[in-house]
Write a structure and sequence with these properties.
It is a single chain. This protein has a domain of 173 residues: Undecaprenyl pyrophosphate synthetase (3-Layer(aba) Sandwich). 44% of the residues lie in helices and 14% in strands. The protein is built from 8 helices and 6 strands, in the order αβααβαβαβααββα. A 6-stranded parallel sheet has the order 3-4-2-1-5-6, sandwiched between helices. The longest helix is centred in the middle third of the chain and has 24 residues. The chain starts with a helix and ends in a 10-residue tail after the last helix. The structure holds farnesyl diphosphate (FPP). The site of farnesyl diphosphate (FPP) has 20 residues, from α2, α3, β2 and α4.
Amino acid sequence: MNSKQSTVSKFGLDPGKMPRHVAIIMDGNGRWAQQKLMNRIKGHEHGVQTVREITRACRELEIPFLTLYAFSTENWQRPAHEVTALMNLLVRFLKSETGELVAKGIRLNAIGQLNRLPDKVRQTLDEAIRQTAHNKGLTLTLALSYGGRSELVQMARLLADKACRGEIDPRGIDEAVVADHLYTAGLPDPDILIRTSGEMRISNFLLWQIAYTELFVTPTFWPDFNRQELISILQSFQKRERRFGRVET
Ligand code: FPP
């Protein structure tokens, strides 16, 4: 038994049925804080600890790709002080975690309208991405100023521009070409999408990429989500039959 098999088996998981890509809509920070009569920002601060715990767990379980919805295009409409607090938290997270990401072989990646991020966030993000670029252990993708529809609009513009320049034949555009022009080019589609806090919504996340993804919604607020609950979801995932639209023969 190799190290991956033994770690995974320890948690009652089948090493042959592990997901390659887990995506998470981290929801419920605000309600978690309000329930405790705390400021919403405290919820985000505790949410960062969960980001740390879940990233470590995925690394240990040798899941190759983890994608976290950290800030949506719609989140810009939140009160300015909350947006600023989230941006500051992100900078602090990137500065404090880059050392561990490097040490644990985790590659940082980001998707979304990154040009809308404040300069400070952009610079810290670019630096963390640069320092972790050669890591092969886990690709941690942060969706920042991300929206699935704007990603599709951008893809359509890129392809239209290429067609106008004669670089691409419109009849040659197939699913693989579309996928190659999304922010997620090079990442496999998620096998699992988890949403915390019980809302049954996709909220503009990875609209193209989740066509055949297995969905898991848990009532747990993101700051209370933990490694044990992730493992329970992985156990349920391994019991599901994935048919991708086909029938069993
Ligand atoms: C949703 O909770 C969460 C967010 C909009 C932000 C998620 C951010 C973090 C977990 C912290 C920063 C991230 C990283 C990667 C360091 P909500 O505020 O919508 O909660 P509510 O629905 O209960 O109001």
